[in-house]
Every structure is written in structure tokens, then in C-alpha cells.
Design goal:
This protein is an alpha+beta fold. The protein has 20 helices and 21 strands.
Length: about 725
């Protein structure tokens, strides 16, 4: 066998490039057909070059011993390496009908690729097109952007924009509270188009930089990132670039382009007035910068930052090796099996790979949770909360598919059960059972987070019951008696209607009196008299109704107490319905402003006795009971923490003006008024007695309350969450 001719020869179309890793010489080999890349050690590349279809195994072993003395190559290891070259399609066979075997191998490889694609459906890459001819045409015409002067100017732009945005940080955080409604309610198509353009520029930056350093770009298309479509540009050919700094530049090009776009968008947002352009610029600035720093630029995810780390530390296939290290260690811990996945790694390298793999898995889970949180916010604004369950189940199934398939492959190996440690498998089963018991049987503290409003205890809230223009009001923080006028509104159309109705009534009354006198002389008018009399009664009732409506324009105090102003209403942006007034209705500047129905004018109460009113959703009210402790963080006073106790829970859902529970200036609404008719959006008011003394100036302040409700198990909390979201979809 040693003297037999090896019927294999190195493929002539392979592209080879020298590489240096950790001071050692390597050879990067590119398969131009499958677009796969391999890194061969000098010994492996020497054997590959020796294959010409006429060389025997003995000759290969002798040449190897002469070239790498005193090291030698055993016949067994030589055959193993030849088999690997055949499986990787780096050699071609000189044996007749070898194409049939290659065809069957190709069919098996495609089947494996399809199974792998199904397992990684969340991050699947869809077929694209070859952009290399286009990029070859564009790159010479934009080569100036790669000059040092342009890059320095771009750096100055990014730094200046960053400092400008930081100076507007308070404004930015305030507008971020409305991000979901800006993103999902207004110009949704325009926002999505702007984000798509940013991602297109990101991938174009990769492609042009790759062409600039002499590599090819074989594919451009769409891939899925956590189930969300995004562009991709295949710059795997940068692996053939000898300089690792150039490879790192190719990898970082997309992140750098996004940072430049984010900087430009930040300046547009800073220097433009509120409107569509301002909102889109803010969206682009936030998403481009966050994506660059936390996702694309993070080395724990298999994106740009990961490949920069791979080149920087000279560790090829870092993610795959780290994944194998984690899987091998977990398999050994849980079953006692050793699949040999990391035995070829040095101990110090194995530890580093395990740490990196663990951090990478943890960060991927964190990113997916953030993605679910973002999708939840958008779906909530679009009233499609039920789709979150479908999306979450889809994500979890895709994440579990890979580990489960790996475990099944290991367990299907013949004789594997005899090698497994029964004690470790028993310990694993017991630990899993204890987790199930803990999730289903051990209650844990449960908290309900709700918006809160500070007001006077047992205060009477005065609402506008009929819209009108404000003529006069009492001053805030003064004492009034029962029945005293608090505000006078005016409705000219109603007053004119009252005058016309009264005049018509008087005219009809005179007419009926005249007919009463004539009916004794002319019996024919008796029937007409009765109909005119009924008409007079109808007109009288209408006059009384209009008089009552006119009285509703005069708001009076229902009890003795102090006039306390409501929550301050700030000026609203262009995206909102135009406000008729700002501040509070009691402010002097709001005279002649239009107050709509259900506008809160003021409250009548004692400023020395304050309470907090919470707004609890229907799904959480069953967890609330009298006597439960509450922690309240009040906005606008340094986030001070106030403690209290629930003293009353409303038994009937109520419709309230939810703007008073919103964000800054009441602009952020938890629910729109049109949503209050939906069964799943019924809200309940909960009154909280606050401990200690609070300053009267805190009346009308908003905050966030955390109620420690009855302890429940993790399983019951998950069931309640699923039940409420499934019910909302019905």
C-alpha cells in the first residue's frame, strides 16, 4: 500500500496566499467554486502540493521527512489527511468514475446545509447576486474617501457630533420616551426606508473597502438577523488579504460608515425644528449608533467586531472552537461523555475559548431579549401584542434546535450509552427536576409596576363637562366654600342658541294663548290648538335643556377646601394634535383658551394630606390588595423614594384621562382614549396612603410605583402572561 500511487492531485484552480499567525507561517487556501476558505500549516500545504496524481505514499513520506526533519509523518496520519482533503474538495481524483462519488458527496453536503439552515433560521442567509463588477466600477471613482485627509475629517465630524448630542442629552432622553410612538405611528414607511438606506451604506462600505485592498466580493443580498431581514455583503475573500490590518479595516468599514451616518443624523436632529425630518434623523442617529456599538462592533456576536477580534488575536474560527469547547465541557459535566471536541486545543487556549464561548452565549441571549423588548414596544403601539408570543416562541425554538440536535447526534453514536456516567446523568436529571419543582412550587416575590400621580387625599376632581372658552378662574392655592364659582366658560354658539330658543318659545306661547281665546268662538281651531300646545311643551323642555347646558359652563366647588392645580401640561410637538392651552387651566395666560370636555380644571382638597393614585391594568389588579406596601419614585425631585400602603382598590374599571399618568408634560400616554373601550385595556384606580409628610408642591407630580403583591411561582407568572396576551388577540 505504501508503494501505491495516490490517485489524487491538487486542484489547479485553488487560490493560495501566505499568512502569518503568532509568528508562524500558514497558507490560506480559497476554493473558488464553493467559496470556502482553509488555513493550512506548512506541513499540510507541503503534502497538498506533493499530490500530482503520480506520487506514491512512500515518496510523500520521504519528501516530508527530508523537508521537516527530524519530524516525520506516519502512514496512518497521511491517509487521514488525504481523506480530509477529499472531504474538503481540495483535490481531484484521477480514478475513472470518481465523479459519481463526488456527486453523492455533494448531495449529502447540500442536505447537511439544508438541515443547518433550518437550525439557524433566525440568522439564515438568503441567495443574493454578484456585485463584484459594480463595485469594480465604483471603487476607482470613490477612492478619495480612503485617503488620510478624508478619514481625519470624518473623525472630526463624529467627535463634534458626539459632543453636540451629549450637550442635548436631556432633550434626547425626553424624546426617547416617545420613541415607539414616533417610530410606529408617524411615517413608519419613511423610518423603515431610512434605516434600510443606512444598512445599505453599511454593507457598501464593506464591499468598497474589500475591493480597495484587492479582494473580491462574490455575493450581496438579504439575510435574517433574529428573524428580521437585513442586507449582507460577503467579504469572505478578505481572508486572502495578507495584512491583518487591512482585513481589520475591511471588517470595520461598515461600523465606521454607520458612525459617520449617525453623526450626520445627529447634527440634523440638533439643528432642525420638530417635524418629520427631525424625527427620522433621531431614529437614524439612535439605531445607527446603538447598532454599531452594541451589536455590529461587539466581539461577542458573530458580526464585524468578532472578525476584528479574530484577526487581532490571530485565532481563526474562534466562534466554532469556542462553541465546541463549551459543548464538550457541558456534555462532560452532564453525561460524563467526551466527544473530543476540544482535546486538540492546548489547556490555556481551551480555558480562553470556554470563557469567550460562555460570554458570547450570554450576550446573544441578552441581545435577543433586547430585540424582544424592542419588538414588544412597537407591537404594543400597533395593537399587535399577540404577535409577540408567536415571535418569542419562534425565537426560543430556533435557539433550542441547535443544542438538541447536537445532543441527539452524540446519543445516536453506537456504544455511547455504555460510556456515559450514570451518576452524572442521574445528578443532571435530579437538578432538572428540582428546577421544575422550584418553578412550579416555590413562590417568589412578585412586583407590579404602575404609573402614579400625587394628589390631595380624598380630593374632589373638577372636570370640564362641556367644552367652552375660558373666561375666568379662581386663583390656585386658595380656600373656597361649597358652591363657589371656580371657573366660568363661554360658548357663544350655545348662548345664541339659548336666545333663539327662548324667543321662539315666547312667540309660540303668545300664539297658543291667542288660539285659546279663539277656540270658544271657532270650534274648528280646537284640534290645531292641541298640536300647538304640544309643540309649546317641546320648546319649553328644549329651553330648560339649553339652560342646563349653559349652567354646565359654570364650574362650582362641590365641597369646602383648597383649590389645587392639576398636572402641568407642556407644549406638544407637531406630531400631536395641537394643544389649546399649556401649563394648567388656572394660569392667567390660558384665558380665552378652549377647554375640551373631560379636561381637569383643578381638585378641591387639603394640601396637608397627600396620597398617590395608581393606575393598574386589568391583568394585574387581581394581584393588588389593601395593605400591600408600595414604593413610589417621584419625578422632578431627584427621583426621591416615598413609601406608602394601599388603602383602597377600585372594584370597577374606570375611564380616566391617562395623559396625567404619562411622561414629561403628559405627552406620553399609556393608552389612547380610543383604546379604553377594549376589554383588555380596562384600568383600575388604586389609592395609596403615603408615609410621612410631603410638601404640597408635589401635588400633581408624576412617578412610578412598585407594588409588592402576593408571592407567586414562576410557572404561574408565565401562565398569567401567556393567558393575558392570548386573550388580547381574541
Amino acid at each position: 500500500m505504501a508503494g501505491a500511487v495516490i490517485p489524487l492531485r491538487m486542484r489547479s484552480d485553488l487560490v493560495v496566499s501566505p499568512r502569518v499567525h503568532d509568528g508562524q507561517q500558514f497558507w490560506a487556501v480559497k476554493d473558488p467554486v464553493s467559496l470556502r476558505y482553509y488555513l493550512l500549516r506548512p506541513e499540510e500545504y507541503f503534502v497538498l502540493q506533493a499530490l500530482d496524481g503520480r506520487t506514491t505514499v512512500t515518496e510523500v513520506l520521504e519528501r516530508f521527512a527530508a523537508r521537516f526533519a527530524p519530524r516525520g509523518l506516519s502512514q496512518r496520519n497521511c491517509y487521514h489527511f488525504l481523506d480530509k482533503l477529499v472531504r474538503d474538495s481540495l483535490v481531484e481524483s484521477t480514478v475513472p468514475r470518481a465523479g459519481d462519488r463526488l456527486y453523492h458527496r455533494c448531495v449529502r453536503r447540500r442536505a447537511e446545509a439544508r438541515r443547518a439552515w433550518m437550525q439557524t433560521l433566525l440568522f439564515a442567509r438568503l441567495p443574493g447576486f454578484n456585485p463584484d463588477p459594480w463595485l469594480s466600477y465604483i471603487e476607482p471613482r470613490v477612492r478619495l474617501v480612503f485617503s488620510a485627509k478624508v478619514q481625519v475629517a470624518a473623525t472630526v465630524l463624529v467627535v463634534y457630533a458626539m459632543m453636540t448630542v451629549i450637550s442635548q442629552w436631556q432633550r434626547l432622553t425626553g424624546e426617547c420616551n416617545e420613541f415607539y410612538r414616533h417610530f410606529a405611528e408617524r411615517n413608519l414607511t419613511l423610518h423603515i426606508f431610512a434605516i434600510a438606506v443606512v444598512k445599505l451604506l453599511h454593507e457598501l462600505g464593506h464591499g468598497l473597502t474589500c475591493k480597495h485592498f484587492g479582494a473580491e466580493v462574490p455575493s450581496f443580498g438579504i439575510r435574517l438577523l433574529g428573524g428580521i431581514p437585513a442586507f449582507y455583503c460577503d467579504v469572505s475573500d478578505s481572508w486572502m488579504v495578507a495584512s491583518r490590518w487591512q482585513r481589520m479595516a475591511i471588517t470595520l468599514a461598515g461600523v465606521w460608515v454607520e458612525l459617520i451616518v449617525a453623526a450626520a443624523a445627529g447634527l440634523v436632529w440638533t439643528y432642525t425644528l420638530p417635524g418629520t425630518v427631525n424625527a427620522v434623523a433621531r431614529t437614524v442617529m439612535i439605531l445607527a449608533s446603538v447598532n454599531s456599538l452594541l451589536i455590529n462592533g461587539n466581539p461577542l456576536l458573530r458580526f464585524d467586531g468578532y472578525f476584528v477580534l479574530v484577526d487581532f488575536v490571530n485565532t481563526p474560527n474562534l466562534a466554532g472552537r469556542a462553541r465546541r469547547a463549551v459543548q464538550s465541557l457541558m456534555l462532560r459535566w452532564t453525561t460524563g461523555l467526551d466527544d473530543g471536541g476540544s482535546r486538540q486545543e492546548r489547556p490555556e487556549v481551551r480555558q480562553w475559548l470556554f470563557v469567550y464561548g460562555t460570554l458570547s452565549l450570554a450576550y446573544q441571549a441578552l441581545v435577543l431579549l433586547g430585540l424582544l423588548w424592542f419588538v414588544r414596544g412597537v407591537l404594543a403601539v400597533l395593537h399587535l401584542e399577540s404577535l409577540l408570543i408567536v415571535f418569542a416562541l419562534f425565537v426560543c425554538s430556533m435557539l433550542l434546535a441547535g443544542p438538541v440536535m447536537t445532543l441527539l447526534r452524540v446519543l445516536r453514536v453506537p456504544g455511547v450509552w455504555q460510556q456515559a456516567s450514570r451518576s452524572r446523568m442521574m445528578a443532571t436529571a435530579i437538578a432538572f427536576g428540582l428546577l421544575v419543582v422550584a418553578a412550579c412550587g416555590i413562590p417568589i416575590p412578585n412586583y407590579v409596576k404602575t404609573p402614579a400621580l400625587v394628589r390631595a387625599e380624598d380630593a374632589a376632581t373638577i372636570y370640564v363637562t362641556r367644552p367652552g372658552r375660558l373666561v375666568s378662574t379662581v386663583d390656585a392655592n386658595r380656600r373656597v366654600a361649597t358652591g363657589e364659582v371656580l371657573a366660568q366658560l363661554q360658548d357663544w354658539e350655545l348662548e345664541e342658541e339659548v336666545l333663539e330658543a327662548n324667543a321662539a318659545y315666547e312667540q309660540q306661547r303668545v300664539h297658543v294663548n291667542a288660539m285659546r281665546s279663539l277656540r270658544s268662538y271657532d270650534p274648528s281651531v280646537r284640534g290645531e290648538y292641541e298640536s300647538e300646545k304640544e309643540k309649546l311643551e317641546t320648546m319649553r323642555r328644549r329651553c330648560e335643556y339649553l339652560a342646563e347646558e349653559l349652567q354646565r359652563l359654570t364650574l362650582r366647588a362641590p365641597r369646602d377646601g383648597w383649590v389645587l392645580p392639576p398636572a402641568v401640561r407642556a407644549e406638544e410637538g407637531e406630531h400631536e394634535r395641537l394643544a389649546h392651552w399649556t401649563g394648567t387651566p388656572l394660569d392667567e395666560r390660558n384665558r380665552n383658551s378652549l377647554l375640551e370636555e373631560r379636561t381637569e380644571l383643578c381638585t378641591i382638597g387639603d394640601p396637608a394630606k397627600l396620597e398617590a393614585v395608581l393606575l393598574v391594568n386589568e391583568s394585574d389588579v387581581s394581584l393588588i390588595s389593601v395593605g400591600q406596601p408600595v414604593k413610589l419614585r417621584v419625578d422632578g425631585v431627584g427621583g426621591s423614594l416615598v413609601r406608602g400602603t394601599i388603602r383602597e382598590v377600585s372594584q370597577v374599571g374606570s375611564v380616566v384621562d391617562l395623559r396625567q399618568f404619562g411622561g414629561k408634560g403628559g405627552r406620553e400616554r399609556l393608552l389612547e382614549p380610543s383604546e379604553l373601550t377594549r376589554p383588555t385595556q380596562v384600568v383600575y384606580q388604586v389609592q395609596v396612603r403615603l408615609d410621612g409628610e410631603m410638601h404640597p408642591l408635589l401635588i400633581g407630580s408624576r412617578g412610578t410605583a412598585l407594588v409588592r403583591s402576593n408571592a407567586t411561582t414562576v410557572a404561574s407568572q408565565c401562565y398569567r402572561f401567556l393567558r393575558e396576551h392570548v386573550r388580547s388577540s381574541l
